Amino acid sequence: MTATNPLLQPFDLPSYSAIRPEHVEPAVDAVLADNRAALAGLLERNAGTPTWDGLVLALDEMNARLGQAWSPVSHLNAVCNNAELRTAYEACLPKLSAYYTELGQNQALFQAYQALAQSPAAAGFDVAQTTILEHALRDFRLSGIDLPPAEQQRYGEIQMKLSELASKFSNQLLDATQAWSKHVTEEAALAGLTDSAKAQMAQAAQAKGLDGWLITLEFPSYFAVITYADDRALREEIYSAYCTRASDQGPNAGQNDNSPVMLEILGLRQELAKLLGFANYAELSLASKMAENTDQVLSFLRDLGARGKPFAAQDLAELKAFAAEQGCSDLQSWDVGYYSEKLREQRYSISQEILRAYFPIDKVLGGLFAMVEKLYGIQIKELSGFDTWHPDVRLFEITENGAHVGRFFFDLYARANKRGGAWMDGARDKRRDADGALISPVANLVCNFTPAVGGKPALLTHDEVTTLFHEFGHGLHHLLTRVEHAGASGINGVAWDAVELPSQFMENWCWEPEGLALISGHYETGEPLPQDLLEKMLAAKNFQSGLMMVRQVEFSLFDFELHATHGDGRSVLEVLESIRSEVSVLRPPAYNRFPNSFAHIFAGGYAAGYYSYKWAEVLSADAFSKFEEEGVFNPDTGRAFREAILARGGSQAPMVLFVDFRGREPSIDALLRHLGLSQEAA
User: Fold this and answer.
1) Ordered domains of the chain (ranges, CATH)
2) Which residues form the Peptidase M3A/M3B catalytic domain (predicted)?
């Protein structure tokens, strides 16, 4: 099996089409066995005076070998999920969790790191090496290195169980999303929907051997109905199905219910925090983040909520008045998107759908690449002849002055058996290997846009363009690093509440007239976005920004409170209701089960860290204000941002890097100005 297992062969890029579920567990077992043997030899060699190459670099090699076998599997499980692959993937989770716990609690390894950090050689280490050692020693302590054996064992059991539960949450959400659909045979029922949305639904029906149209809970389909369907009952039906996924409510009540999974996750996280000497999981979460303490995070969020709530109340009052004029006197959650879009159209004579025609995918990508080429002095070209997991996937290479920098895959469109949302996955880290050869980085960039239908190219809404820029910002952070030590290259070692800075920073160019000129062109004529549409779009930029602000603050406070107060007797929904009472202006129906699909905090890396989106938004708005002062395509400012933020990865504290770029600590003023929520804007 080893000789033919594609996960165990040396490769540049994975042979995705050759990977089968039966390859997964044998590959992971083989690498873990090899790594355990290699670790024993490594510790023996470093028993006296450890060296960087003998200890850290050797461990990096082991991690890279495991990553080479596991990263393609983890990726395929997210983008091409099926029962056999899921079973193989889940069989490996406890094995990987046990392995990483072993490493984190290996006393000899910990002592070797301590000895290296205290050795005379450490005085000559560069800043990235010093930071990597500091983070390693911190992470040993957060892995329970100081705990007595029985508690160390319990730590390992908790981590293993949490890994399984996160996967279960994600799987149940995916299954619940796919468990509901609505087959429509009368086109009149879809009145109000755009031609592109109906074409996508017709394509979905054909794929299932059905006539007519198939509405699903994949986001492009859900969004089309909730935003454009004139039939209020249809909007309510899909809203009810969508916001009760994986819960005890709604049309599939009790199927794939994530409620007990959430409670078990929260209980285990709290136990883990207590084991390690923290009062709660929120405190443990901040031990490796930029924020200093829980009070700082809570006061930051409550301040944003207080600033945003009057604007949100004004937004809602205007929306209710408009809906009443249209004959809807009792505005409900399933009406908000519909009447908001109608109000936007009335007020600004613009809609996402009008804009979609001006954002064909290749024009957007070409403009995006032109922008970053100008800002950062790089070149991007598309590659062909590569192995892939789906025909829609594209591969690109970044070069600089003719030299290879890195590559990235784009998997942009929604489809069955693909996890919802959008993300960047660092598929391979930049580093020097044991022979001194430079390994270049690879990134996977994944979105869930509406695919091409009816002979037209894929056309993006401006919201989707913004999502694309966001994920590409993450990709640039991973790919443009100049750090050659794995522990601090790209996004490695970057505090979680600063990792959104480069991604949210990129979104700013979606609103710049010079940037829009590059990324827009009518899909039929190539005509650039007309000046009147551009002006309307910019005028509508902050439409309902108050409502958007309190929505994000609600999610962030809910997440943080949930992890800071678990065990105080309140249920998950009671915590959510208390937060809504504090910051929200619009309450959803009682059957809404938003937490059951909040994968960011229950199946992703954002537990007690969702606030980082708003935290990093402050950083990104302030960083962008330097471009506003010096020219949005000023290459000198672009190079300065690249060298201060993107190139240095996790080699230094985020605040140090930010101050190096901006010349001072961040201010909230730029964010409030960008959102139209400053007192001057009021």
Assistant:
1) 16-146 (1.20.1050), 180-243 (no CATH), 259-350+545-610 (1.10.1370.10), 361-539+613-675 (1.10.1370.40)
2) 226-677
